[in-house]
Design goal:
mainly beta; globular; ten-stranded parallel sheet; 17 strands
Length: 133
């Protein structure tokens, strides 16, 4: 389902898939959340989260009780806070671009940024890759 508008909030007790063209957005899914599109500040809460091609023109705050992954390019202009508890964070698309500090809490963690990367870590085994500016 495509979601278009200004400030938006969607809560679903089950799995949720949304393509965004929105301002500030809050998404909550009882199981898996699949998100893509563009948003202002984006806050997500789900059992597991996968980012397709997603552009966030503000801050990203993601909380998951399962894995956090990407299946497309994730671009965030502001700070990112990603908390997967003890679960994996795998944001390994080579074209990802995190503009602000990325704060990560999780188990095994892999993050790739096409440019410079500033990270604060509370993670298990971690691989960070950033291309020089």
């Amino acid at each position: 389902m495509t979601l278009t508008g200004g400030t938006t909030q969607v809560v679903d007790a089950n799995a949720l898939t949304r393509a965004l063209t929105t301002g500030t957005t809050n998404l909550t899914a009882g199981t898996t959340l699949n998100v893509s599109g563009s948003s202002g500040n984006l806050t997500t809460n789900a059992a597991a989260t996968d980012f397709g091609a997603t552009a966030v023109t503000g801050t990203l705050t993601t909380t998951a009780s399962g894995n956090v992954t990407d299946s497309g390019k994730l671009t965030v202009t502001g700070a990112s806070t990603i908390n997967a508890g003890a679960n994996a964070i795998t944001l390994d698309n080579g074209t990802n671009d995190f503009g602000g500090t990325v704060t990560l809490t999780g188990g095994a963690t892999t993050v790739v940024d096409a440019n410079a990367l500033t990270a604060a870590l509370t993670t298990g085994a971690t691989n960070l890759t950033a291309a020089p500016r």
